[in-house]
Every structure is written in C-alpha cells, then in structure tokens.
Amino acid sequence: MKRVINGRFLLRELLYSKKQAAIYILCVSLSLVSLIAVNSFKRDIDRSISGDARALHGGDIILHSHYDLSQGLQRAVVGLTEGKKATAVRTRAFYSVARKSDESGSLLCNIKVVENGYPLYGRVDLASGREFSQVVGAGKIVVGQGVLDRLGIVVGDQLLIGKSLFEIADVILYESAKPVRFFNIGPPVLVSYKDLAGMDLVKQGSRVAYETLLKMADATTVDTVAARLRERGLVGQERVETFRDAGSGIKHFFDNLLFFLSLISVCTLLLAGIGIESSLSAILRLKEKNFAIIRSFGATGAYLLRHYLLFVLILSAVGTALGIAVGLLVKGYLSVLLSDFLPPDIVFRASAADLSEGVVVGLMVVLFFTFLPLWRINNIKPAVIFRSESSRAKKSFTYYLCIVLGFSGLCVLLIRYLGEVSTGFYFLGGILLLLLLVTLMTRLILYFLSKIKWRRPGARLAMRSLLRPGNVTQSIVVTLAIPLALLLIIYLVENNLRGTYIDSFPADAPTLFCLDIQKNQQEAFLGLVGGKVTLHPVIRARLISINGKVVNRGRELKKRRDNLAREFNLTYRDALLEDEILVAGKRLFRKDEKGEPIIQVSLLDTVAEMGDMKLGDILQFNIQGVEMEVEVTSIRSRTRSMLYPFFYFIFPEKYLREAPQTYFAALHVESEEIPFLENRIVQGFPNISTINIAETAKEMGRMMQKLSKIVNFFAAFSILAGGLIIVSSILATRFERIKEAVYYKILGADSRFVLHIFFLENLLLGLLSSVFAIVMAQAAAWSLCHFFLGISYAPGWGACLGLVGLTIIFVVILGLLGSIPIIRKKPAQFLRQLN
Amino acid sequence: MLTCIGCSQEEEKELMVESNNDGEIIIVAVGDSLTAGYGVAEEESYPALLGKKLKSEGYNCRVVNSGVSAETSSGLLSRVGWVLGLNPDIVILETGANDGLRGIDPEMVEKNIRDILFRLKEAEVITVLAGMKMVWNLGPVYVKRFNGIYPRLADEFDVIFLPFFLKDVAMKSELALSDGLHPNGDGYKIIADNIYPYVLKAVIKKENL
C-alpha cells in the first residue's frame, strides 16, 4: 500500500525552501502578534472609554425629567434598589440667584443638589484634597472658584441660597459628571440633598432638572433594564438613557472611536491574510516546475496537495509558536515601552483568552488565505515543465464549496470584529468591490501598455517581461495594492477623525462666550475686553421654503438631531472665516454686472445636507415678519469644533445690515481671569450674558488628548505591522522576477542593461500598485467618513504622494537588491538552481 | 407682502409699508420663543391660532408672528424700529422671560420694557402687554422684584394688560414640551384663548379710533 505521507519528500521540501519558508513564517507570526495585540488593546480601550462615558454621565442608566419621577418609574427604581440589583442616587439641578449674607451682591449659580453616594462613577475633586462626601452636608456646600471670584468672598464665608444660609466649605476643582455639550451660564454649587427642603426652591412653579442615576450591580443588564424602565416612563416627559446613548454628541464621538478600532482590527486581519497568501503563492509558483516533474513520475495532485497542506501547517505552527513566544517575551515590557504613547489607564494585558483567540483566528486566516494557492497544486500538469506560464486551477464543486465555507468563516470574523452584521457585510462587499476594481484596472492598464510601441529597447523588454503570457504582474499589483490601500484607509480615516475631533480643540480655543451685545454697545464692548475680537452679527429667522416647497415643520420637528423647522441665526459678512473653506461655488458671493452682490446666501455643508440643498436653489426666509427670497451661491465647510462660532446661513452685508440684530463674541481668556472679566462686563453692560466654557473646553481638550494618543498609537501600530507585511510580500514576489534576469544574462545582456530593465519593471509595478491603492483608499475612506462616521472628509493628498514615492522606492530597491547576486554570478549556476 | 429687505433705503421704505388699504388691522406679536412657537409647527403657535380665531369671528385682522427665540428685552428693544417698520396697528408685547432665566438684574429688564413701551406709545400703536412671572427656583427675592415689573409698567403706560402670559399653562407637564418650559400645541390653544379678550379689546379700540 502506498504511503500517505512521504516524510523524506516533506523534509526535503522544507529544507530546500529555506528563504521563502522563513518569510512565510515571519508573515504568520507577525500577523498573529498584530491580531492579538490589536484585539487585546481594543478591549482595554473599550473598557476605558466606557468608564469615561459612565463618569461623564454619572451612572449606567440616567433617568431624566423636568418633573418628579412618575409613580411607575419610581416603583421600578425602588424595586431595583431593594432587590440589590442597582444603586440609585437622585440629583436636582436648577439655576438660582445666590446672595452674599449681607445682601451686598448676588450671582446666578448652577445649583446641583445631590444625594449621599454621589458621584456613582467618576469623582469630584476639591481644592483641600478632602473627600467630597466628607465635606458636603448639613449646611455646608462646595462651589466653583467663579462664585468666590465674582462675589469677592472666600472659603468659610456664608452664602444665601433660597431660604437657607450655607457655609462655603470648599472649592470644586473638577467634577467628572457634567453635561459636556451644555454651556452653563452660572458657576457650579453642590448642595446636599438633606438641605433641599430648607432652601424652599424646588416646588410648584420651579424649573428643575430631576435626575436619578443608577449603577447596576451586573453591568451586562444595563440595556435590558433601561429598556424596561423606558416602557414605564411617560413618553415625551421622562427620558431613560444609558451611559452609551446619553448625549448624542458624546455618543457619536465614542462610537466613532470604537468603530475606528474595529476597522483597524479588520484591516490587520486582512493584511495578515494577504501577507500569508502572497508569501505562500510565491513559494508554490517557484516550485511549479518541480511539481510538474513529480507529477510526470506518477504522483497524483492529491499526493502533492496532502504534502503541501502539511508543509503549510508545519510552517504555520512554527510561525504561530514564534508569534506567541515573541508576544509573551515582549508582553511584560510593552506597558513600559508604550507608556508614553498610551493614556495612563490603559495597559497591555494579553490574557490566555486573548492568546487562544489569536491562535484560533490566526488558524482560520491561514486556512482561508492558503486555500487558493494550495488548490492550484492539485491541477498542475506535467506539461508545465515545457511552458513558462502558471497553471490555472480547475474549479470543481469541492473548490466552490471550500470557497463558500472559507468566505463564511471570514464573514463571521469580520462581523465579530465590527460588532454588527450589516456593517460586516458592507465592509466585505466593499473589499470585494475594491478587489474587483483593482483587478479590472490592472487588466485595462496592462492592455493599454501592450498597445504602446516602445522605442527604447530597455523599456520594450521591461514591458514584454511584464506583459508576457502567464505573467504574474496582475497578481503582484493586486497583492501590493490591496494592503497599501488598507494602510492608506487607516491613515486617512485617522487623519479625518483627528481633524474633526482632536485638532479642532487647540489651546487657544474660545473660553468665554458673550451674547446679546447690542448694536450701540459694539465699540464700548471691544474697548472693555481689549484685543482683537470678532463680533458676529446675529439675525434670527425661519426658513420657509426650499425651491417653493414649504418646509414640513411636523416632520422636521420629529428629527432627533437638528432640523429645518427651528429658528436659525443668520449673519452677514463678505469673507470666509479662518476655519471655513468653500466646497461648492467659486467664491462666497456672486456679483452682478455692476459688481454688486445679488440677493444670495452661502450655506454651511451640514445644513445643505439636512435639506438636500444645492447651488442655485431658492430659499425663502421669514426674518421676524419680513419675507426674503435668496439664491444659494456657495456652500462652505468648516474645520474646527463646536467651540468656535459658526453660522449655517451667511448673507452679503448689504442685505442684512438694517435687519434687527445682536452681536455674539467668542473670546479666549485664561480661565482664572474669566470671573473678573465677567464682573467687568456685567457691570458695564448688564444686558450681556456671558457663558464660561473654560471648563468645557478643558474637559474636551483632555478627552481629545487621550483619544489622540489612542488613535495615534493604533494607527502607528497597524501601519508598522502592515508595512512589514508589505515588505515581506515584496520580498516574496521578488523571487518571481529574478529568473528573468537569468535569461537576459544567458542571452548576453550586460549588468547595466539588466539593472535598467529591472528598474523600469519595478518602477511600473510600484507606480501601478500605489496609484491603484490611492484610488481605492480614497473611495473607501470617503465612504467610511461619510456613511459610517458622519464626519467631514479631507483627502490628504500629501500622504498619498508620499505613499507613491515610498512604494516605488521600496519596490525598486528590493527588486534591484534581489537581482544583484544574479548579475554578479555566472548564469549557468542559476540555471542549475532554477531547475 | 414683503419679499425684499436687501434694497436701498428708499426702496426699503417703500416696501416696508404694508398694504392695509382694505382696512385690515395689522397685529404684530413680538416676543421670544413663547411667541415664536419654539418646538411646535408655526400654525400651532399662539399668533397663528389668534389670527384664525379673529378671522373666524369676522374681524378683518392679520397677526404677524415676530417672535425671536432666546431673545431678551435688550434684543427686543434694539429691534423696535424693525417692528414699527411692519406698520402695526396693535402690538402684543411678550418679553422678559429669558432675562429672568439668565438672572439679569430686574431693574435692567424694567428699563428695557419701559423704553419699548415708550417707543410704541410714541408711534401711536395700541399695545397689549403680556405679563410674565419668574420661576420660583431663582429665589424669593429675585422673583418678587421680577414679577413686580409688569403691573407697574402697565399702570404707568395705561396699556391693555394680560397679568400672566402662561396662565393655566405654566408647569403643567401635559401642556408643555419635554423641556418643561415651552408650551405644546394644547398649551398654545389655552394661551390663544386667554389672550383673545385682551386683543379683542385692542381691536375694538382701534376700530373706534
């Protein structure tokens, strides 16, 4: 009986493929390390971000109302706390005018009355360093520094709030649970719940935000409990939110970060797969002649397949073992090494579960991505000995079954990493589309290149070498272009996330908003605040119709986010702001034949999208009783955050100059100086309201810094891993092209000529791969930013050009380096080696 | 109806003159979000409901909504000229709530409303002043000072006075939006019914002039 496995054959194959096998092992281990690292980091970051969101909202579940909780909700909360399923803390927040004990001054303050146990998550830092729970209570309150500065009092003084006299016990330095998207008018004051009744401020006729915060004993029950509470709440009056969905601005922001991390996981997975596939393909292509010879001696395709399956499994096992060994070796040092790059509360903790998951996923990736190259062995005919072209695999039912099974496995992995079935399918569909596009593009370009008559012999030979029948140019271009595109997608998405969230919170962001500055107060106000401050005119108006179609207010008001039915702040000016760019229209406003601007409006892209408005549309506004029709002549986009003033609709000055207006100013003032400036403004202009957003800006800035580190680290890590995989792919495909050099040498070409041909060949391969990668990455990154992340998109052409340059350099250098030993030696030696 | 405000001064004046030759009485409802109808469809706001009611009762009146959300009394004072440009016969004046919610000194609010009433009087416009009461949480001292403004000014200028604009509506969850502050459609129906007799008084006064 025939032996199933021939040990000597297998051993010989392993020994004679040293170089290629080493690259394959490197690919497997690198892929495994990247997968394990990315996934375990992702989990830690997920945990950390969830912690931040909990601290920000103060609980797992937040019940919010402007009235006392309804009986149904109250009973549900009592049921949860009595059953030890949750801890609850009540808060009451409202504005009140606090007075100095001698009645010599008063100030509007943002009062929050809190029960014992507050905060459930996060912290309240006090200037004295004492515990918050030890300080507040029984007539003692803690206040923001602004209260002291603006009223000219100190810790230990007394403050009248409602009917109670309180002692100021401490100063709040930091409070994690505060609504980040909300700009508070007055400085904060925290009061104990025991003192609520004494103040006599919360009763019929008061406007109060009633909140109950819940901390669940079992974190996995948050969503189900929230859904149950939602059913009990009064629709339109009581809001039940979880820390994940409370505050849509913050949610959007966290969701985007988590999606980016998932995206990196998936890209790493695919990069790893491509690396494995390309290095194995290279090994097998080189051995095609050997396989044909073995087949001519009577070996079956199944015999070869069996041996090479084992061959791949042995190499993969070595790669996996190496990956785990390297992972374990550096595990202890990673936290230390990366401490400068990661936020302090995130450490690298690759658990046994992470490792085993990594191994299982790695094995699935190996099986899927090695299937196609291995299947080809099955169909190698002995006639290949006489031809210099690759054999084509015969596609049987088993082949398609295996493809379907493998594909399903890959789908499961993608869905697991992306967290959603639809997103997984979109992503997979996108990848397949990209693959199809790049294949078609390569074919098309190669076809056109074959039609060109090249005059210079070097170029002609290089082209013929690339275009000969049975060539591997197309697969090399695809193999290089796909990972390059994946890397570029990561870079572009990271860059746009950074542009939207991180860079838009610079150190000089505004810290104080001033509203309601009157026309006749402009000069005096500027004199008081000093410096260069832009006063933005604000004119209130409603949008009535778009191209004669009346805005459907009923439908618009149901929109969860912004809507077209509300009143808008119009403004006028004749130039773009520093952070604005035109995305449609040649200039902000068009001029008529006399050089005067016609009645027109410039839209911000966000509002244009909201109403599907475009250039040339006619909008009708009602400006406080006066109607006005205008044409859209430009659309703008902006590059900064919500902390900078922005306007949806800008008119030419001439047309709104006389309309009723107030002015708005956004100032950057150091936070410690704000209370004094606020005092001066209020004394000089009692009608002007000031909003201190220094705390909000600081908090946003802190979070952005943290995110910046996470995004940077992940992008850098995956780009580095991907870069190494690409280098190994280039190395693997390099062997394919080396034998060409041998033939040239045999035919009498000198070294310079061979190098010249190789240079041109590699130049074209690098150029094609990188250009295709850019086209694919731009399309994919734009779609991701536009459809999934909902952020504006900047194409980053500089980076794209850099990618073209780097790819060409890499491909050319590695290609030429590979050919040098051939050029130096006698061709006969290589002929022997090749055979 | 006006369609253009972007014209030369002369053109503007010409256009700003409303065509009330047919004896139609122009009523301009000026105020903040409570007048503008924040959060409800425009046809549910009180000026729209009031206009419908007057029409159905056979009065030749047109009610123009000139409410501006988030506006304070200072903002309104600065646009009185614009309001007068609408050539109103009657003005329903509702302002001050935002001043109170921002804790602005009641003395300042009183001065602004006084100046507005003075300008309206000067322009011989019949005024219906809608009184406002401040939310209790701002504290008893502030609330007392604020609530005193409206009856005092109503006396001083001898205007038609609705003591509390949000009577029977304020603090009733079933009549408010989820913010607990702005009325919903049902709330506005009550407001329109409450204000109707006062506006009618103004309309009769105008017809008798």
Question: Average pLDDT value of chain B?
Answer: 87
Number of helices of chain A: 24
Q: Helices and strands of chain A: which structural class?
A: alpha+beta
Termini separation of chain A: 31 Å
Biggest β-sheet of chain B, characterized? 5 strands, parallel
Strand content of chain A: 15-25%
C-alpha end-to-end distance of chain B: 25 Å
CATH architectural name of chain B: 3-Layer(aba) Sandwich
CATH topology of chain B: Rossmann fold
The structural class of chain B is alpha/beta
Largest interface: A-B, 64 and 59 residues
What's the name of the CATH homologous superfamily of chain B?
SGNH hydrolase
Please, how many helices of chain B? 10
What is the helix fraction of residues of chain A, given as a range?
A: 40-55%
Task: Supply database-style keywords.
heterodimer, A: alpha+beta, 3 domains, six-stranded mixed barrel, six-stranded mixed β-barrel, 17% strand, B: 209 residues, alpha/beta, Rossmann fold, five-stranded parallel beta sheet, 10 helices, 46% helix, globular, disordered N terminus
Task: Write up this protein.
The complex is a heterodimer of chains A (835) and B (209). Chain A is elongated. Chain A contains 24 helices and 21 strands. In chain A, helix 8 packs antiparallel against helix 15 (473-502), helix 11 (352-378) packs antiparallel against helix 12 (397-418) and helix 13 (421-451) packs across helix 14 (457-467). By secondary structure, chain A is of the alpha+beta class. Chain A has three domains: 7-50 and 252-503 and 702-834, no CATH class; 59-242, no CATH class; 512-692, no CATH class. The two termini of chain A are 31 Å apart. Chain B is an alpha/beta fold. Chain B has one domain (18-207): SGNH hydrolase (Rossmann fold, 3-Layer(aba) Sandwich). Chain B has helices at 9-16, 33-36, 46-56, 73-78, 80-85, 97-101, 106-122, 140-147, 149-157, 185-207; strands spanning 25-31, 61-67, 90-94, 126-130, 160-162. In chain B, strands 2-1-3-4-5 form a five-stranded parallel sheet, with helices on both faces. In chain B, helix 3 (46-56) crosses helix 10 and helix 7 (106-122) runs parallel beside helix 9. The radius of gyration of chain B is 17 Å and the shape is globular. The two termini of chain B are 25 Å apart.
